[in-house]
Amino acid sequence: MKKCCKEYFIYFLGELTELRFERFPDSIFWKSDKFGTVFELDKKNEMWMRHDFFKEISNFFVMDRNQTKEILKEIINEHLDLDIVSLNPAGYLELF
After folding, report:
1. Is residue 81 one of the residues assigned to a domain?
2. Domain membership flag for residue 53
3. How many domains does the chain have?
4. What contacts 27, CB < 8 A, 6 or more positions away?
5. I need a labelling partner for 84 at 20 to 30 A (CA). Which of 47, 62, 71, 90 fits?
6. CB-based contacts of 94: which residues, under 8 Å, 6+ apart?
């Protein structure tokens, strides 16, 4: 399941670009070439993910919220070479 989900995740998101802003010195953002800003990593090492993207993945693989969070946390850690402590869908994420 993880391998299939990872392939879909990478395909669905497209190319990711890391962004940093003076306005948000304690955060790192990732922008998708297809969707704009999709992730924010805060100073507590918590990853925030656009809710609509989180919901799309969850619905596509028919997973509940906790299953989606755990699988995506593993995929994101591996894909972006991070060690995030948690993944949370964000109701609002600054879009750049």
Report:
1. yes
2. yes
3. 1
4. 20, 21, 40, 41, 42, 43
5. 62
6. 24, 29, 37, 40
